[in-house]
Design a protein that fits this description.
Layout (H helix, E strand, L loop, with lengths): L7 E4 L4 H22 L3 H8 L3 H29 L2 H17 L6 H33 L4 H24 L4 H20 L5 E4 L11 H29 L10 H46 L3 H15 L2 H11 L5 H30 L1 H12 L1 H4 L1 H4 L5 H4 L1
Antiparallel strand pairs: 1-2
Helix pairs in contact: 1-4, 1-5, 1-6, 1-7, 3-5, 3-12, 4-5, 4-7, 5-11, 5-12, 6-7, 6-9, 8-9, 8-11, 8-12, 8-13, 9-10, 9-13, 11-12, 12-13
Length: about 400
């Protein structure tokens, strides 16, 4: 059986600060774009006059479009480089966001959401591939900082859109303004993105295998944890009587703040201690956070648990993406695509799976299962980082 060779990737440009800026802008646009849609959901439901069941099916279109596009993007990026995919994905977000406010039937909104999700999925994969390339060119950890910008984009996007809607700016006008901001950002990034020449002497598509399967599984677990905290943490702490219903979102808010802060400091810490220690201690800290959360007798201790989970989990995914770029089992573009797709599937399927398990053993029991799964991260840290990279030799 023919074994595919590794992709030989050679950055055409050498302007490292410019490439860093372009990558940060791509992550910022991705987080900003998806966050702009969230405040529009109630308006879409009211405009179409649909029930929660139909709305749920429509929202699933974003995930479906994203997953399909992610699988295709890995192949396209491996052949043509990440630059044109980043530009196309960002332009897609810019174009389709306003359309989400004018689609007046479930069918047309579903098609628009599919396209919006496909744009997001393409951008998500391509920007991570580009981040791997930029990080490799600089030979120092940068991935955590890039991912932090996605979180910042999400915060800015949701805040700006909520503000515009709260002062009674029309939904179409609000999305056009946000689309203009995204267009400006990607215009700045366009000339600064690295152009990659890729050469292949093996098949273009390679099924994930070897270490990439493990990387993808760990990414799925980490993303599953994040999705479960988003959808179920409020019910967990209110169900235990730790906080009142109005304060149920405090836990996820603290988790998000800790994760963003952890990623801003993650590159410097990784450069000091290496990928293996980052994965081991990060996974251990996040698991300990679950133990604190699930055994907390009072709210402040439970909130400390959310902080520990956020800090511990913050740099696990960046390490996994970096390892996807340094492994030799398959072309790095396809490996990054596999990890992104699997991780996103974890976000999509995770909350439903938690609900199913909670129905059998209770919500605390489901969260204990998440903690047990998260234990695999520190347990696999040595295996995942067996191949040395710049993060280990820094």
């Amino acid at each position: 059986m023919h074994s595919p060779s590794r992709v030989d990737e050679h950055p055409v440009t050498s302007d490292r600060p410019a490439a860093r800026l372009a990558t940060r802008l791509a992550f910022l646009v991705a987080g900003f774009g998806i966050a702009c849609w969230v405040p529009l959901v109630p308006f879409a439901k009211q405009r179409l006059g649909v029930d929660d069941g139909v709305l749920g099916m429509l929202l699933l279109c974003i995930g479906l479009g994203s997953v399909v596009a992610m699988a295709v993007t890995g192949v396209l990026s491996a052949r043509y480089g990440s630059k044109p995919i980043i530009i196309a994905g960002a332009l897609g977000l810019t174009a389709f966001l306003p359309l989400l406010t004018v689609a007046n039937t479930p069918f047309t909104l579903g098609i628009a959401l599919l396209a919006f999700g496909a744009s997001l999925g393409s951008l998500d994969v391509a920007m991570n591939i580009h981040a791997v390339e930029v990080e490799r060119a600089e030979a120092r950890p940068l991935m955590s900082g890039f991912h932090a910008l996605f979180s910042v984009g999400g915060f800015v996007g949701s805040t700006l859109m909520t503000f515009l809607l709260s002062v009674h700016v029309d939904t179409l006008a609000s999305t056009l303004l946000c689309a203009a901001l995204m267009l400006g950002a990607i215009t700045i990034a366009r000339s600064r993105l690295i152009e990659t020449a890729a050469k292949h002497d093996g098949p273009l598509f390679v099924a994930p295998r070897g270490i990439v399967l493990l990387l993808a599984a760990l990414a799925a677990i980490t993303f599953l944890v994040e999705g479960a905290l988003l959808d179920w943490s409020a019910l967990l702490i209110t169900g235990k009587g730790l906080v009142v219903a109005a304060q149920g979102g405090l836990g996820y808010m603290l988790f998000s703040i800790a994760m963003t802060a952890g990623r801003f400091g993650g590159d410097a810490l990784t450069a000091r201690i290496g990928d293996r220690s980052m994965m081991f201690w990060g996974g251990l800290l996040a698991t300990a956070g679950f133990v604190v959360l699930l055994t907390a007798p009072i709210a402040p201790i439970a909130m400390a648990g959310f902080l520990l989970i956020g800090l511990g989990a913050s740099n696990i995914v960046p390490v996994l993406f970096r390892r996807a770029g340094s492994q030799r089992a398959m072309p790095s573009a396809l490996a990054v695509a596999a990890i992104t797709t699997t991780g996103y599937a974890g976000i999509l399927a995770g909350p439903a799976a938690v609900g199913f398990v909670a129905n059998q053993v209770g919500l605390p029991g489901a969260f204990w299962l998440l903690a047990a799964m998260l234990c695999l991260v520190p347990c696999c840290a040595r295996l995942v980082t067996a191949t040395r990279s710049h993060a280990d030799s820094a």
